[in-house]
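So, does this match?
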Amino acid sequence: MQLKVISSLFLFGINLCFGISSVAQLQRPNIIYIMTDDMGYADLSGYGQKAYSTPNLDKLASQGLRFSQAYSAGPLCTPTRAGYMTGRYPARIPVGLIEPLTASAKDSTYGLTPEFPSIGTLMKQGGYETVLIGKWHLGLLPQHSPVDNGFDHFYGFHSGAADYISHKGDGGKPDLYENNNPVTQEGYLTDLFTQRTVAFLKGAHSKPFFLTLNYNAPHWPWQGPADKAYDDTADFRAGGSAAIYAAMMKSLDDGVGAVMKALDETGLADQTIVIFTNDNGGERYSNNGGLAKSKGSLWEGGIRVPAFIRWTGIIPPGGTSTQPVITMDWTATILAAAGAKPHPDFPLDGINLMPLCRGKGKEIERTFYWRTSQRKKQKAIRDGNWKYLQDEGEEFLFDLGRDPGEKVNLKATNPEKFRQLKARHSEWEKTVLPPIPL
């Protein structure tokens, strides 16, 4: 696809931002953001998994820059997705306070609305074709739909989880949609999302595209492609095995491989930025790589995730960065790469990572904040290598540079640092919305 060359003034700005010299490289890139669901930090063989392999994802990571200290905006699905969609801390918008969104009558009133400009809206305003395929989990009402929040096209489901075979979501109701219309289609969800993505890539494109591909794998229910649908009365969390989990991961890896192959076959690979990450830590059958605890927790096992980015010819391949990054950084990076402008009334909490990715910027110390309040009361701040953590009233101080497994509580031996970080978190809480009771 020959992408549209934008104005010379805009190209000059991109040149300054990214240090790109050739005219061909100055054309606006296509962007694919792939987010998986409930993957453990070490569920990819490139991050330490030994029980099975993920060759396609490992290959993708090797073709760009891999991050070893990437974080999700929250330890659960909905908050992280709110952070990605808005580029801001989840606690800045009401739906980001729901941990996570369920099918309850109370929760159904919450969702993303155009009142809070999404990355889809901003990219569309910037001249991009916008598509979301896969899991949404940011609202069930019509005004919460992806197509009412900046996406030209949506294919996927709205719930927090869906049966991979029957496509029934929360409450046992059918939950597969084309835009706002329910659809019936046979197939394994991971495969369906891959097929739709490949078909989109192979279609005609009159302008650059921005595609968010939200695989629900490897989130429960625990089903591989050869398994049957759950009974309507069955608990989605029930069942499963390490072998089924491996099958789910294989389908996910195969899917990403098919998407990358489609980019090659269409000649789009060199014109497309591909970002891969996950929404929170894993659970049950996941490998969290020795990190403490898991999904739902603000310990490292609940919020540290795999992440990498490829831009062929622009980002040097084979690199690994220890730069701490967080979900909202991907929003800021995508907007910057596209030349799309954030809304002036909703400043981003993330930073543009592209200079670092291109080898033109240095790693810097970062400060990140988290809070959960509904099912579990937790607070955390990471400042440099120091991390303050409050978990149900018990407080900790860790040096993640020396102790990524959070085994040694330094609260007593570093009281000033402990007090400082706790106070900084309290100040941050004054800038976000108060919690919503469960």
